[in-house]
Amino acid sequence: MPDSPQTSEELLNALNELKSRLKLYQAVFERLDVGIHVIDQNMTTVLYNKAMGHLENENPADILGRPFLDVLSHFRCNEESSTLLRVLRSGETLPDLKQSYINSGGRMVTTINSNQPIIIDGKLSGALEIAKDVTFVQSLADKVLELRTQMTRRGRRSSASSGSVAVSPRVRYCFRDIIGQSPPLLDLLQQARRIAQTSSGVLIYGETGTGKELFAQSIHAASSRADQPFIDVNCAALPSQLLEGLLFGSVKGGFTDAQDKAGLFEQAHGGTLLLDEINSMHLDLQSKLLRVLQEKSLRRLGGDSGIDVDVRVIAIMNKSPVQAINDKELREDLYYRLGVAGLHIPPLRERPEDIPIFVDHFLTKFAAEMGRAVRAVDPEVDEAFRRHPWPGNVRQLEHVIEGALNLADQDEQVLRLEHLPMFFRSTLSPGRQARPARPPVPVKTEIAGNDIRQRLAKEEKHSLRSALETEGGNITRAATRLGITRQLLQYKIKKYGLRPDREI
What angle do CA 315, 321, 323 make, to 5 degrees? Predict the structure, then answer.
């Protein structure tokens, strides 16, 4: 019985809708920035997008509909090496495999491939390969490794020829660069100095902007390894497949186009390796890292022989290890290995007595850089700083002061609320919002900016010495007389090289 006109119309509408959706899916498919290659149960290529064609230097029209074995021979590959065929035959999933090969255009390509079976109605109907191009990232990692190799060789040659001990050129900070006088910080510094005298692994954790890398560099600089390499790597900056090769190196022929390369562990032999954001490292790679730490030996990728390494590992993370373990970001056994010596850097809001010291430090730093005469902050600013939670900690405070000095006039000596950056002022309660900026009071002076700062510093030093002399060297009473905290006075005594017991 023929279809009724209404039924035919419905079928036509349904067909048009399917065609429309198919065009939509096709448009999306071709705009994906990852390569897609799908073969059916007969080993025929049924999907192959432009991104995959770009990777392999092929025209998708020349690949679609062809037997996959023909495609393999065209790429000079065999059935045994094809992960796509392996998935089709076994039904297993092969996630996140690194592959390096030379495409048909002669270009070296590195990809991270995920191969998955296609199951339809409970039946294995095909296999899917998703390829992400990481060639550029791999080339950067190779360049970083090569530069580090050259730096390490030059550093060791220089140290050997001079016969002297010199801190690794990668280290910019040491313990004397860490400022602050709060009890939590002083306790932390004492712990860190003790840890520096050992070779145990160290796990440093704290919120962003608290100075974790500063502590890591200081530990290396105060250790017996100070004249050896200090190498740092951000574990969140590279895919695990590339990070593994960067850390452990590779052996020529170990995998497609692999070359003999020493990894960062070998580069850091005798020194310190800093692993930043270690909780971003894949758990499987954490397991391999743990094995290296326990055995003090590694195998390069594709290698079958062990290489002894003497490296102190310092790991950094911005969350508590317990939370990272609960979130499945950190292996518990790796934590116990690295956490032999652990340091928790408290956030700035838990040590408010350090805020005036940081303020003075950053005022001095940026005033000199910008040619400003600012030497102090208004009491309202001081109160706002003490009340602020500082989610970005010391780094945020530094940026706030730098931004404020950009808004201050060259001859202004006091930082006021209206100078603070807009994003900071917006966090203040309505009653404490900055008043409209007042016109700058002209300073009648012919003294150059540098001379002004020298004169102000000389006057401040004289006031400090006078207060200490009046109070018989008693820092607490002298601080009260000056209207500043005891911790800030101690910082300024150190800053100006005063000796309360002698220079009064």
Answer: 145
